[in-house]
Amino acid sequence: MTRTVDTAQELAAFLRTRRERLDPQDFGLPVRRQSRRTPGLRREEVAELAGVSIDYIVRLEQARGLRPSADVVEALAGALRLDPGERAYLFDLAAQRPRTAGKAATVAAPSLVRLVDDLSPLPVMLMNHRYDILAWNREMANLLVDFGTLPPPQRNSMWLCLRHPQIRERYVDRELVVREGIAHLRAAWAAHPDDRLLAELIAEFTSGDEEFARLWAERDVKVTGRGRKVMRHPEAGPLVLQYETLAPLEDPDQLLVINRAADEESQSALDRLNAR
């Protein structure tokens, strides 16, 4: 049976990797590289920066059952110079952030389905926190694939990017797309530690995809709400999209992804694609 998040082990590993990536010179600490057998800050340096004991840091990094308070989590986040996404991830692992009630949606609310259609001609889709695609409009299907022809387990944007032979080649900077997707998925994994389907999905990717396993092991955490994607479409040609991700107030675990052309050439490409 696939395990969900072992928060103590993941908290330990995350703290170690964040500590090891830091440069002592950025903190005004003496380098003495010949005496540093591992990269980054020492445990005692993190302990001093966070205002806790060295033994406390050791026990955290050895997953010995500690549950840091919100104040300690905040101090650790500051000491390790975590960005907002990493900070939220640390709070989730320490069970210090309120959980979202209920299970992940598997069917989109009718009002959201209508909204997705109403946003045409912009390519739009609705996903849950697992990246399962719950609703899409015609323009989104034209851009990627007719999701309705896929078995439900394959209607997942991470699965498509990793496994679908045509979509794998559609992103010019595919590794960046996969890396950002994994960073978001890791944040969702910590925020939903009891979601067994999500844990099983991650286990499937980790065991069956070398690229996913390599990037997942880096423990990057980032929730990216907007950005650009460069694509090469077999019919429309090259195009650049700007995307914006919105979460409905009543369904905060669902993500509305709205795509727009980034320039005139890309808009012309979309127009040609949707006029077929």
TrEMBL record:
PROSITE patterns reported for this sequence: HTH_CROC1 (PS50943)
Q: Domain named HTH cro/C1-type: which ranges? A: 40-87
Q: Which SMART domains match?
A: HTH_XRE
Under what name is this protein listed? Helix-turn-helix transcriptional regulator
